[in-house]
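hey m, so remember when u said the tokens were messed up on ur end? i reran from scratch. heres the input so u can diff it against urs
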Amino acid sequence: MTTPKRYELEDDQWKRIASLFPPYRTGRPSKIDDRTAFNAILWVMRSGAAWRDLPERYGAWQTVYSRFRLWVESGLFERIFEELIDDPDMENLSLDSTIVRAHQKATGAKKTPSVWSKIKPLD
């Protein structure tokens, strides 16, 4: 097995989802295969970069983006998530105080009754 590039699927991961992809149905053959397009989408999503910053090894960003839109509309990503939901990837799971926000009243500020507590219910 070859070592995948950053943000790309490994061979065994691809084998689990490869059958979920719809056949390509245009008059001419696609310039990139489904795996390359999917890896390109993962690169954009995980790196946070703009579509136009997609590395050249993935092909034209317009091709990848149009494939992404087709797959979103077809529900492909939901099917992939359903297939992989029992196999969570805990590698990127992290929780720290920089991402957990607390309400100002949770920090010990003086608690005042809300406006809604003063309203009497109708009989």
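this time it looks ok to me. Residues 41-90 form one domain. if urs says something different then somethings off w ur setup not the seq
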